[in-house]
Amino acid sequence: TTSSYTKYGRLNIFYFIVAILIARPQSNDSTHKGYYASSALTYLLAMVSSNMALRWVAYPTQVVAKAAKPIPVMLLGVLIGRKSYSLQKYLFILIIVLGVVLFMYKEGKVNTNSENAGLGEILLCLSLSMDGLTGAIQERMRAASRPSAQHMMLSINSWSSLMLSAALIVTGEGMEFLSFAFKHPDLCTHLIMLALAGAFGQLFIFMMVSSYGPLPCSIITTTRKFFTVLFSVVFFGNALSNRQWFGAVLVFVGLFADMFYGKKEGGGKADDKRKLIPNEK
């Protein structure tokens, strides 16, 4: 919905401010500005299309669909980001994704809209495609110049803030938000706390992308939902179905298999560093 622009606009502007305060970027960042701009655009399109899809699909459907995020990140990383993975890696990621889907899926009423049937699914596919493109662009970015996490956060949020500011002006939601904020000044305190927590969380995400790449980051952000629900079972005694226990087993099998056997592909960090040096061939 258009309210997505208001939500992400105010948060990304705050992320940009925090990035300026905490960033200690490289003295000479040679990363092409086009990488930052395109990464910001695909990142925003992924978020907005995912939230727009909720008008036509149920929330559990969105969660399950987004659990497959590592698959487009891996595939487009190979096609566009110039990465390569072993068959073992593909198998381990597929096991993890399948386990998360089985674990997160909830039976229930499907939110259908006969007038726009299939539009929600199309938006979810668009969101996943944009996630994959974001990962591919970040792979190219790392291969070209390997910018620091702080510099990536600062530059990507500056571009996304510009794009969202333009969207707020065009849609008129910027003035609507300011009017609402003046009527309810206590809103600012909650927004600052939310944005501050989100900004520091985003910093750790960029540190993960900068050091290890978009694919490990997407695996972590996907499995965090799984572990959140699993911990609720351990600490609050929530019951799981047989299907969910089977999904949990698959996730742990995939994670541990990738942890122990995935290290053997390609020679580890030394090989990864060689891949990140441009024109080495």
In brief, what are we looking at here?
With 281 residues, the protein is mainly α.
Task: Give an account of the 3D structure.
This protein is mainly alpha-helical and 281 residues long. The protein has twelve helices and no strands. It has helices spanning 3-22, 33-52, 59-66, 70-79, 87-104, 119-144, 149-171, 173-183, 187-212, 214-236, 242-261, 269-275. Mean pLDDT is 79; it is low at 266-281.
Throw out a few tags for this protein.
281 residues, disordered C terminus
User: How far is the first residue's CA from the last residue's CA?
Assistant: 47 Å
Radius of gyration: 20 Å
Which word captures the global form? globular
Instruction: Count the DSSP helices.
Output: 12
- Stretches where pLDDT is under 50 for at least 5 consecutive residues are 266-281
Question: What kind of assembly state do the chains in view correspond to?
Answer: single chain
| Helix content percent band | over 70%
The average pLDDT is 79
H/E topology pattern:
HHHHHHHHHHHH
Tell me the major beta sheet.
Answer: none
Give the amount of beta strand, in percent. Answer: under 5%
DSSP strand count: 0
**Structural class based on helices, strands and sheet pairing:** mainly alpha
